[in-house]
Amino acid sequence: MPNNVEEFNAYRSKMNEKLLAENNKLIKRIFNLDTNAFMPGALDVKTKELLGLVASAVMRCDDCVKYHLESSKDQGVTKEEVMETLGIATLIGGTIVIPHLRRAFEYWEALEENEA
Question: What pLDDT is stored for residue 2 in this prediction?
Answer without folding.
Answer: 54
